[in-house]
Structures are given as C-alpha cells and as structure tokens.
Amino acid sequence: MNAQTETQALPEKYSKNLRILHWSMAACILGLITVGFIMVDLDKEDSLRPTLFALHKSFGVVVMLLLGLRLRERLQGPLPAPQPGLDAKEQEYATLAHKALYALMLIVPIAGWAHSNLHGREVKFFGIPLPKFFPTIEGIGGWTGEVHGYLAYGLLVIVLAHVAGVIKHRYKDHNDVLPRML
C-alpha cells in the first residue's frame, strides 16, 4: 500500500454532529444576546424580567454544554482541510476568529455565572439549582455585569465578522465556504 491509500481523505464538509451543534449554538447565542438586550432594559418591577433572566441563565448553561459536546466532536473526527482558494492572510484571520469564538463561547457564560454568584444569586438550569462556583461579595457593584456585557458584545462582533466573511466568500470571491457547514 502506498501512503495515499493508507491515509483517509479529509471530508469536504464538517460532520453532521458538528453542523447540528454549530447551528444550535448559533441560535442559542443570538437568542441570548437578544434576550440580554431586552432584559437589562426592563424596569426592575416588570414581571417579565425574572422570567427572562431565568431563561437567559438556562440557555447560557445550554451553550456551555453544547460547547463541551462540540469540542469533543472536533477532537474525535477529521475536519475538512482549509478551504481551497483562501490566501494565507484570510486563513490566518479565519483561524484567529474561530479561536476567539470558542474562547468567548466559554468565557461569556462563565462571566455571567460569576456575576450571578458574586451578587448572591444562584444559577438554575430550567429550575434546577446548579452549584455556586463563586462567593457572594457584598458591595461588589455592577462592574461584573458590565464585564459579562462587554464580553457578550465582543462575541457579537466576532460572530458578525464570521458571518461577513462567509458572505464575502460566497458572493464577492465566489469561493463559497457555507456548504461545508450545511
């Protein structure tokens, strides 16, 4: 046998599981950002506010769980080769953006969890209390929520850059990367 027949060809698309996890996380993250914008602007007496905060926390936990599954899946199977036709700089930007996306998909929910715990509030997963990982600190102020918010804005910027890159490659460069994730 020669070396070419011994090695398996790389897939053209991401695995079905990775594609499902990608789009599920995308929906959750866009929903979390949308709900986040709405809930923080509601009056503290608004009866919808606690419901939105509870859903926001639950879906933040969902993102963390999906991220764990996604990382496991990425490590288990072969990934497609880099998209042909991308120059070295575009490939470098794509790699950097993906690393930033993965980092922020983990850091943003952890920062939200920390914000809740530091202010003495628990995190529940659809009504089920979860462990408290951070101590309550009296008088800590609102900066922890601001950190969570700014990190979420950073995630949104990277997501928008990611989508802009996909659109650019599809319509301007005619080097469509989207089918790899469909």
Describe it:
With 182 residues, the chain is mainly α. The protein has one domain (14-173): Fumarate Reductase Cytochrome B subunit (Up-down Bundle), CATH 1.20.950. It has helices at 3-6, 16-41, 48-76, 88-118, 143-172, and strands spanning 124-125, 128-129. A two-stranded antiparallel ribbon has the order 1-2. The longest helix has 31 residues, at 88-118. Mean pLDDT is 93; it is low at 1-6.
Topology, element by element:
Layout: H1 3-6, H2 16-41, H3 48-76, H4 88-118, E1 124-125, E2 128-129, H5 143-172
Helix pairs in contact: 2-3, 3-4, 4-5
Describe this structure in a few short sentences.
The chain has about 180 residues and is mainly alpha-helical. It has 5 helices and 2 strands; from the N terminus they run H-H-H-H-E-E-H. The N terminus is likely disordered.
The overall pLDDT average reads 93
Total strand count, please?
A: 2
What are the secondary-structure elements, in order, as H or E? HHHHEEH
The major pleated sheet works out as: 2 strands, antiparallel
What is the count of structural domains? 1
Tell me the name of the CATH class.
Answer: Mainly Alpha
Low-confidence stretches: 1-6
